[in-house]
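Long-time lurker, first post. I've been practising inverse folding by hand and with some scripts of my own, and I keep getting stuck on stretches where the structure tokens seem ambiguous. Below is the full token string for one chain I'm working on. Before anyone asks, I'm not after the true native sequence, just a reasonable design that respects the backbone. If someone could post their per-position residues I'd love to compare against what I wrote down in my notebook.
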């Protein structure tokens, strides 16, 4: 178990300690926009194999830290490693993304093997250990997992989707049956994140990428309640390890989500006005976000003006600068460098 260090800006921001400037990291900061990443990926080939190869996964996790000096590294992995570890067939097809054998009934659910996840996920824990041992003293390591609703959505659909109709219909028609899948994922996520913390993660993040497709009551049941269970159990085991929740698309439901789940930080997407987030969220929780990733592609004055607007709105409360979603592959690396310098030069007093 790791205790948060006052020498790590990210941990200080999440625990509402004073910082000289906002800490920053970027979702998908290890990715295809970096030539050094593409080189490693070409050597490994298969994306899933790369996630399970500790030397490669650790290397690409560390690459953006070496290049840009972010205040946090985030583990290189994928939110669908839990379904894979549970025994659901998973492959990544070029140009198509993840493809899974759908889980849509009790028989498919019964075939999952929660007791075997650590055997499959052991290489991920080794990656965490390698990265934790290689980071500069002031840099935090963020472990992560997909939230149960989002992971279940891929498991049921069998692929990515915009509407997730099969998942939502199962949840509406048979909430008890769908709830059993959510329960399996909740327990697996608790154990997965616990092992990441024990291996060296200083904080963890839950990605609920498809929270925005749910109505208010369904959001509470399938996003807020499972997240509260995960956070509560993690806090019992590791009370000093902060948890960040990112319910993408939650909009006006975000304040209730933050209050009900017990998270230490909440990620906000590009659609949320920073000043609204400052007035509505920062009194109780650290805010993380929310520059448009395409502004980083554009670079120049567009990127700088949008970044300063976010900094001016959010820097005077607990805040972590990030994007509203992940860095896209066409992003020029020099634009990420310019953005990093702009944030690094910002001062809160």
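-- Answer (accepted) --
I ran through it position by position. Result:
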């Amino acid at each position: 178990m790791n205790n948060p260090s006052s020498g790590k800006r990210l941990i200080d921001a999440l625990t509402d300690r004073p910082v000289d400037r906002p800490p920053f990291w970027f979702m998908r900061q290890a990715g295809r926009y970096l030539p050094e990443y593409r080189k490693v990926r070409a050597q490994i080939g298969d994306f899933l194999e790369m996630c399970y190869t500790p030397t490669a996964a650790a290397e690409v996790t560390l690459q953006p830290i070496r290049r840009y000096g972010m205040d946090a590294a985030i583990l290189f992995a994928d939110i669908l490693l839990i379904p894979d570890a549970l025994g659901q067939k998973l492959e990544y097809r070029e140009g198509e993304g993840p493809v899974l054998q759908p889980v849509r009934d009790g028989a498919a659910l019964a075939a999952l093997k929660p007791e075997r996840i650590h055997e499959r996920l052991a290489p991920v824990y080794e990656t965490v250990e390698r990265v934790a041992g290689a980071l500069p003293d002031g840099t935090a390591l963020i472990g992560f997992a997909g939230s149960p609703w989002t992971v279940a959505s891929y498991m049921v659909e069998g692929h990515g989707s915009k509407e997730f109709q099969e998942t939502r219909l199962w949840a509406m028609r048979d909430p008890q049956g769908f709830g059993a899948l959510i329960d399996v994922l909740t327990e697996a996520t608790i154990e997965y994140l616990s092992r990441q913390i024990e291996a060296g993660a200083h904080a963890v993040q839950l990605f609920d990428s498809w929270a925005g497709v749910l109505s208010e009551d369904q959001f509470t049941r399938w996003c807020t309640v499972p997240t509260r269970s995960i956070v509560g159990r993690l806090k019992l085991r590791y009370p000093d390890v902060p948890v960040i929740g990112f319910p993408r698309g939650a909009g006006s439901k975000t304040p209730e989500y933050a209050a009900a789940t017990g998270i230490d930080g909440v990620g906000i997407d590009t659609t949320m006005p920073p000043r609204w987030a400052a007035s509505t969220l920062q009194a109780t929780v650290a805010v993380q976000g929310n520059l448009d990733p395409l502004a980083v592609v554009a670079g120049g004055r567009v990127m700088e003006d949008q970044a300063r607007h976010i900094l001016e709105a959010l820097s005077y409360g607990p805040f972590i600068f990030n994007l509203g979603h992940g860095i896209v592959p066409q992003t020029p690396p020099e634009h990420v460098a310019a953005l990093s310098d702009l944030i690094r030069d910002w001062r809160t007093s």
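A couple of notes from the structure itself: Residues 1-5 have pLDDT under 50 and may be disordered. The chain has one domain: 9-345. Happy to go over any region you disagree with.
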